[in-house]
Every structure is written in C-alpha cells, then in structure tokens.
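Open question from group meeting: does this chain pack into something compact, or does most of it stay loose? Before anyone orders reagents, we agreed to write out a predicted structure and look at it together. Recording both the input and the output here so the notebook holds the full record.
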Amino acid sequence: MIDSIDQLLFKNMENLVEINLNYNRIVALDPNSLGYKPSLTTFSMSHNGFDFGSHKNIFLSVKSTPNLKRVDLSWNNISRYPNDLNGILTIESVNMGHNVIKAIKVSSVITKKVSDNIDVVINLDSNKISSIQVNSDELPITRNWRTVVTIRNNPIICDCHALSLAKFLQEDHNLDSCIQFEPKEVQCSGSMAGKILNDIKPSDLTCLTNSNCTSNRDCACLSRSYDDSLIVNCSKRGLTDIPELISDESSKYDQIIVHLDGNNLKRSPGEYDGFGNVTELYLQKNKISNVTWLPTSLKVLNLSENALSYINLGVLKLLNESKIGNLSLGSNTWNCDCKASSFAEYLRSHIKQIDSWDIKCNNTDKKLVNLNKKDLCPTNLELTLTLALPILFILLLIAVAATLYFKYKKEILIWLYSNGLFLFLFEEDEIDEDKIYDAFISYSHKDEDFVTDNIISTLESGEQPYKLCIHVRDFIPGELIHTQILNSVKSSRRTIVILSTSFLESVWGKLEFKTAHTEAMLEEELE
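Structure tokens returned:
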C-alpha cells in the first residue's frame, strides 16, 4: 500500500485523465503533488487516512486541475470541506462521505459552475456535522442548476446555531433553485432527537449560555438568536423568593424573558431584583397576592392562577403607561366591590390584550368586565334596601306567625303536644291555662253528702289544693241549667263524674256526662 506521493511522481503527465489512489495509507499530500493536470477529470482517493491538515491550499484547485469533474475523498479523516473546489467550473460531484467534518457553510460548497442543466452533487453523508450555516446573502438567487448536498447520518444539533438552516428550510423557498439538501427533512439529534428541523419554530431554537444570569444556579439561562433574547427558565423549581437577575449578562440582549411559573412565590419581582429590562414575565401558578411594581419594558405578563384580589391604582397607572400587549390575570380570587371599579374600567378599555373573560368575582361566575360602577358601588339607598328588605320580610313572617299563634294558641299547643313537637317550650298544664277550674264535679244531688265529705274536702285541701266547680257553690242562680252545665264543662280542665245509681237515674247527670263527653271529643279532633 502507498503511504505517500513523491512530488515528482506525476511530473510531465499533462494528459493524465484519471487518478485512482483508493485503499491506501496516504495521510497527507503536498499541495504541489499533482502539478498542472489540465486533462484530469476524475480523482479518487477513498479509504485512506488522509486529512488536509493545516494547508490553506490543496492539491485540487482551478490552477492545478481546471477541468476536474469527479472527486472521491470518502472514508478518510478529513475534518473540513476543501473550499478550493469551488473555483473549478467543471465540477459535477464531490464525495466527502464518511469523514469527520463537524461544520460547514453552505456558501463553501456551492461551486462557480458555468455549464447549465447539470446538478452538482456534494456527498457529506455519515460525517460528524452538527452545524450547517446558511447565509442567504451569499447565495445566488437565479440559477439553471442546483447544488445537491446530501447530509444523511449526521448529528445535526437543533439549537440556536441551527437558526439559519431552519429559516432556509422553512422560508427561503426562492433559493431552492441554487441549493437543495437531501433528505429534504433534516433530522435533529441531541435533546431534540426525533424531531424534524423543518417543523421546529425558529423561536424554539436556543442554546445554554456560558455564564449564570441569575443568583439562583437552579435556573437555566438560554440564548435565542431568533430575536436576540435571553431566556431565564426558573419554572417549577420550588422557589419561595425571587432570584436576582445578573445585569452584566442580561444587558447583552435585546429581549429578556423570565419564566417563574409553577413555584411558591408570594410576591412579584420588585424594583431592586434586576428585572428592569425584562420584556416577558411569566408568574402563573404561584401564591402572589399583591403586585407593587412592573418593568417599564414589559410586553407580556402572566399572573393567572395566583391569589390576587385587587390591582391597586399605582399598578393600574403603570399598566396604562406600559407596552404590554398580552396580560393574563384569570383564575385569581378577585373581589368585586367599589375598590375594583377602576380595574374593571381598565379591563373594558384593554379587552383585546387581556383574558378578561377569565377574570371572575371570587366564588361566583360573574365576570368583572361586565360589572359597571353602579354594580360595584351601590348607593346608600340601594345598600339600605338590600339589607332592609330581607329583615322586613323576616319581621313580617314573625308578625304573621305571632298573630296566628295568639289566635289559635290552644289549637296549636294541643297539636304540638299531641305530636310530641317542641315539648320543651311548655308544660302540660299550659294547654288548659285559660280555664278557671281544675275540675268540674258531676254528681247526683242524692250523693251530695258523700261527695262533700269525701271528695271535695280531700281535693280542695293539702299542699296543692285543686280548684273545683260544684253545683251548689258555683252555679249562677237564675241561668238555665243546661247553659250552666255547658259553661262549667268548658271552664274546667277535667270533668270528674261520680258514677252511682242515683247519677244514672238523674236527667241532669246524663246531660252533664253528655256535655263533658262532647267537649272531650272536640278536643280530640283538634289534636
């Protein structure tokens, strides 16, 4: 196998058409090894250990091989693409597959070909290319032929360095006539493995910065070339306090985007936390109950799903003076009272920039944006009526209930007592408290001595004597006996019948018994 090429080997071979040095051990060639070969069209040196090394010029160039068409340098140890090939106007294919090239510039691989209708194929398959730079300003726009660059099996990193390639693949379709990648869909590797670069938004292509941007090392600091932004990602870090932004790092960027969502923060960033130049601030899903300050450069603010109940007038003034175009305040515990009237007016005047329909009064479905000052600040009369009407209604119910009670007190008490309801409110005797006598003694006049000596004397004496109604003492002279019997029964809580043979033979005794029985039946019906 050949290890090296002597500089004099190809001397005086101007008519040489093809050189094949495949499957050797050549690791280096002097730039002057070939000399001038105007007839050379094919050069092959695959499966060697060759690398261009530090030589700026290579042995293949428009000066040494002006009519070269095909170059095969695959399966070597080449780490950079040879720019000198661009000047060869006749070139048709360059095979640089299975080398160790790590990065390329598209402008380096487009040749200055003059012949038309024949595509140039540059094979860069199975290298270690992680970055492809495309500068549209350096590429010709109108061509009748294309440079087809194959980049299969390369570890393309889809980060901020892939921005120019992503934009070319997605937007610069007018350049398709001068360059085309194969495959057309570029596969990502690394953290975005499995994704297609053609489908990734340029704004999602970021890189980790080389230095810290906050006082909290748990936060990730990312740069985004798309809009020259610094992205500070402190989401879901369990933070209880605001990390300070390091101004030396943040001052390098046009945009500063801070994610503090999903933490346990109880306050929003203050004036001395280094947030003065922040343009987007995400604070959703925290425990923030008050906002006292806002960055003047703020364009996006998300405070949804916190514990806010009011926005004070000072912050409202800052909001009105700010450039905020997207403000999220939904899913908070908003108080809808007179103090919220200015905030409601702000919502109505900025309805396109705010998630107004998600801003609802605490514990209700009322939307604050729909409430006017009259709804939020009722007058004294309205407030008085609002409080007085329920009270008046309750008093009216009490008055009606009291009237019905006193009118039908007896019936009500009997019904309550008989149904075992509210027994703690009254004693059993209260049911008959309006009656004069404890008992009416109904007996035959033939039994008067017995009744007087044995029953009346006993009941009307003792520690708790009973008040009795008896014929000889309590009947009113001159009134009808029938009426007197009826009144006596009604005026007594009980009727005691002295049942004897004489009583059964007495007409008045039977009348008294019948009257007492009828009265008892009436009371039972009431129960």
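Observations to bring back to the group:
The first strand starts at residue 18 and ends at 20.
The mean pLDDT is 85.
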